Amino acid sequence: MPKQATPLPHTVLGDDTPCCPPLAQQRVPAEVATALAPAFKALGDPVRLQLMSMIASAENGEACVCDLTPAFDLSGPTISHHLRTLREAGLVDAERRGTWVYYRARKAVLNQLAALLASGGGTTAP
Amino acid sequence: MPKQATPLPHTVLGDDTPCCPPLAQQRVPAEVATALAPAFKALGDPVRLQLMSMIASAENGEACVCDLTPAFDLSGPTISHHLRTLREAGLVDAERRGTWVYYRARKAVLNQLAALLASGGGTTAP
DNA sequence: TGTCAACCTAGACGAATGCCGAAGCAAGCG
DNA sequence: CGCTTGCTTCGGCATTCGTCTAGGTTGACA
Fold first, then answer.
1. How many angstroms separate the CA atoms of A88 and A13, rounded?
2. Distance between terminal CA atoms of chain B?
3. Among A4, A5, A11, which Cα is nearest to A87's?
4. What average pLDDT score do residues A12-16 get?
5. How far apart are the C-alpha atoms of B83 and A39, rounded to whole Å?
6. Residue B63 and residue B53: Cα distance in Å, rounded?
7. Are A102 and A59 in contact (CB under 8 A)?
8. I need a surface site. Which of A7, A104, A123, B84 has the fewest CB within 10 A?
9. Cβ neighbours of residue A87 under 8 Å, at least 6 residues apart?
10. Could you tell me the pLDDT band of residue B121, with boundaries at 50, 70 and 90?
11. Measuring CA to CA, which residue among B121, B126, B123 is closest to residue B24?
């Protein structure tokens, strides 16, 4: 079986995506919803949410898989699968340096999602 | 790990939940991740994301189901099911007034989620 | 009171998800 | 060269999800 050198161009969410007039100020079009929903879905799992946090809050903005895996009571392949999900959602970026693989958070994308949710306005009280 | 499934006591997310030191500044504990993940999961569907937007951006901050349903090519029960999911995730609130049912967005919760994602810092590494 | 409209609940079914163990690549070291 | 370690991919199950049709339940109105 031939080796594919290009593992994942995915990037549904680019850093230049226009996106994000706040969800509460303007109705989200179907296209935009379809583009953004996978990112929220990827965050919709406790393990992935913790992974995302561990990666984003890491020292250099990147975390080694070897540090992430032992933080859970899950098998290595399962963690790898969750990381792949985050990667395909465009939330993180992976890079292999020597023996280890490092994941880095795409903070621009996180900020886009945050901007979408932030209702410029106030709390529940009208 | 002795993971205890949350039985969905409604309102996992209260308006007074302290929550939300940004995800990128402090590692999210397992409990918090378990509490917040359902909200992101609820937003992880294009239909629900549009519903959320339609409700949050409605005139009085509330939208009638009779206005929401015809906006999609889905059956009534399916829309109802999605609204229920949003409700159980604590993202919206439902109220019946006479014949119609109105849904209102919990903007405080949306703001909490936004604050969690907003990485006080900058964009992706330049 | 009977009837109609709006909305939710119940049950079912195909598709996707989460998990694991086993196997496959990649990099370093004896 | 071959062995060990790190991470991913590959098949497999059990569970959950999204959707539908059919059948309530609530309220308005003649």
1. 9
2. 39
3. A11
4. 52
5. 20
6. 10
7. no
8. A7
9. A8, A10, A93, A94, A103
10. low
11. B121
State which protein residues have CB closer than 7 Å to strand D: A 7, 64-66, 69, 76-77, 79-81, 83-84, 94, 99-101; B 41, 44-45, 47, 73-75, 77-78, 81-82, 85, 96, 98-99
User: For chain A, how many residues are written?
Assistant: 126
**Using the beta-carbon criterion (under 8 Å), do B53 and A15 form an inter-chain contact?**
no
Q: Give pLDDT tens digits for A38-64.
A: 999 999 999 999 999 999 999 888 999
pLDDT tens, residue by residue, A26-35: 999 999 999 9
* Predicted local confidence at residue A62, as pLDDT: 94
Tell if the CB–CB gap between B43 and A37 is shorter than 8 Å: yes
Q: What structural domains does chain B harbor?
A: 30-117 (1.10.10.10)
Residues A75-90 have a mean pLDDT of 98
- Cα dihedral B21, B116, B90, B41 sign: negative
